[in-house]
Amino acid sequence: MAEFIEAAATTDLPEGGLKKIFIHNHTLLLARSGGRYYCTDNNCPHLGGDLSNGTLQGSIIICPMHHSQFDLRTGEVIRWTDLNGIKLIYAKKQRPPRPLKVYPVKTEGPKILVNLGQ
């Protein structure tokens, strides 16, 4: 059974904050929204955009590259890209939508802990 690993301190991540972290060869995104902490892969599954440079709207992370949107709670794809029409159809055939990988997070006192489940 995988265990929780210390990822950051709660003071490292203000409300609405995004933080890129590195744990065991994983590049991860920590986010805080609504007083809750979330952890996902940092690279967008669309074309690898750096989500730590994205925008957080509630529990939705928006990639800075093509404005793909994902729900941090589940990894669900909200919008795959900002393309439309025939370009969107082609883009989805080239790179079918994939959810964002999410990881369990908990806090213990001032520590944010992440379970990579490996």
Give the SSE map.
Blueprint: E1 4-9, E2 18-23, E3 26-33, E4 36-41, E5 55-57, E6 60-62, E7 69-71, E8 77-79, H1 85-94, E9 102-103, E10 105-108, E11 111-115
Antiparallel strand pairs: 1-11, 2-3, 3-4, 4-9, 5-6, 6-7, 7-8, 10-11
What is the compact description of this entry?
The protein is mainly beta.
What share of the residues does DSSP label as strand, in percent? Answer: 35-45%
Cα Rg: 15 Å
- The assigned structural class equals mainly beta
What strand line-up does the widest sheet have?
2-3-4-9
- Helix/strand order, N-terminal first: EEEEEEEEHEEE
Identify low-pLDDT runs: none
> Could you name the CATH topology?
Rieske Iron-sulfur Protein
Shape: elongated
| End-to-end CA span | 8 Å
**What's the β-strand tally?**
11
Q: What integer is the average pLDDT?
A: 93
How would you characterize the largest beta sheet? 4 strands, antiparallel
Corresponding CATH architecture: 3-layer Sandwich
The level of helicity is: under 10%
**Distinct helical segment count:** 1
CATH superfamily: Rieske [2Fe-2S] iron-sulphur domain
Domain module count: 1
What top-tier CATH class fits best? Mainly Beta
